[in-house]
Amino acid sequence: MSRHPPLQGFRYTRMAWGKLAVLLFFTLILLAPFTGWLMSLPLWAMDVAGHWVSSPLHSRSERWFNLALLMAAVPSLIAVLMRSIERNDRELRIGVVVAAFAVVAILVAPARNAQRFSADAIVGSVPAVPAEPSAMADALASQAPAAVSPPPQRSAREREAEIDALIRGAASSAVHGDSFYRQQLAMIAVQAQGSNAKRDGDRYEGAMRLYREASAVLQPGAGAERIEPIEHYLSAAAAADPSRALPPRELGTWRLGAFTHGLGRYGAAAARPLDIVDAESLRRQRDAARANFLQALRIHPTFDGAWRGLAWTWLYDQPDLALGALIIEAEQAGRAGGSRAVRQRIDAAGGAEAAPRFQILQARAQEAAMELHGLSIPAAVRVMARRPLPSLPPAVAAMQKMVGTGVAVEPAPDDLSTIPRLSDALDAVAFRGAKSAPSTTALLAGPWRRGALVVAGPLDLSRWRARVGAGGQKSFDARIAGWPRYRIARGFDLPRGLDRSAPAILVLPAMIERPRGDLGNVVLLDASNGACSGRYCGWVLRGP
Hints:
Layout: H1 14-30, H2 32-52, H3 60-87, H4 90-108, H5 133-142, H6 156-175, H7 181-191, H8 201-215, H9 228-240, H10 246-264, H11 276-299, H12 306-313, H13 319-336, H14 340-350, H15 355-372, H16 379-385, H17 394-403, H18 422-430, H19 440-443, H20 445-450, E1 453-455, H21 458-468, H22 473-479, E2 485-488, E3 504-508, E4 522-526, E5 532-533, H23 537-542
Parallel strand pairs: 2-3, 3-4
Antiparallel strand pairs: 1-2, 4-5
Helix pairs in contact: 2-3, 3-4, 6-7, 6-11, 6-13, 8-9, 9-10, 10-11, 10-12, 10-14, 11-12, 11-17, 12-13, 13-15, 15-16
């Protein structure tokens, strides 16, 4: 019976070493999630321990420095103190005491970035780091109410322009496969809360009843001259209750049908060619329909059929944005269902001539939405999505040649929204001679898109309110209605120009680095201790 040679006599060849290296490599790959989590534990421990020896105003590097100083100083001072006791060295003990005071002074020193925020940034006498939530509430209640200057207000047109830019940005992000469009939709929902227009329920119901009676004998796709009563009723309903998205969507559907009906009159068998007057009339009809769908999305960014109707208005002149709108519509339809009858009515208003072009874009949108969610794509959808877009109809090509693509959105001349209103007149007086303030969402677009900011939800604000105990829920929400609100995900540098922009809310969670730079008109709410920084903290906490 032969015995195996001992391992001491075995010589590893290059091939054996290579096999061992390959085995070690794949072992590390398989254990990468565990090893990555294990290697991150020291950093997590340094962050947690750094908060114990620092204040929330300190940056991450300052917290790590304080922790390292404490870990190095305590054992060293203890060792020197014991040596001084052994040798009965009085001078050495005095040196230990002086060094201990120096270490404590460094640890309790204010943060270097605290000087960027003035003392009056914290409302009244509220401490920056209150010991208990009730202490801050008692301080707010005990102090005499001072006059609080209201924040700069935006005109209705500036707010609508900012939301329209977000809508177009969401469509552009979706067509490029960027999931950032969900953040843009969330911001649209936040901005939609800023409308405080008066509502007349009886007038709204009466106008909608007359609309249903007038629309019972018509179908989408009728001429512009036949839908004048419908336009009148729906415009009256939209003016009676500006918080409803149904009248603008319905009005956009009928005007889309009038636009496609007008294009059909100038087909190959038309009695006369398209002239400049007819081209301008068609462009205004299409832009009016687009404005109505945008108005519906400004009110409700996920309203059923609004993105689909907007895609129809972008079908010829901006097919990329139309594809992005259909991607958003496909995801919303897959998540919430939506009404098939509404989609059919909008498709009928789009017309049969444009249906092949629309179906190709719809198939591409379904393919992109399924890929985004990791779903299997049917073969029929793939085949339809690979087809090239058909050429423009002659009437559309002639219209674009005469009046351009018509990217600008203009209302129809017979739209009731073009009639001068009291709110428009007040806006014209209030903002006369004032320069347009830069958009807050545009200024913060860089850190927002990089992930340093995310749209704050009601839970983020409720946590801060629970720490502060500021006011009632309804009054608090009314004071900041329509303000862009973000939750800070990591530290970043604040851009310049925030002192000239509209106000915004930044919620700072616990253990997150404070943003660096000048807050300007931005209000920073620290959820860890209830502190409020910014020149409009008084307005947020107490109102006028």
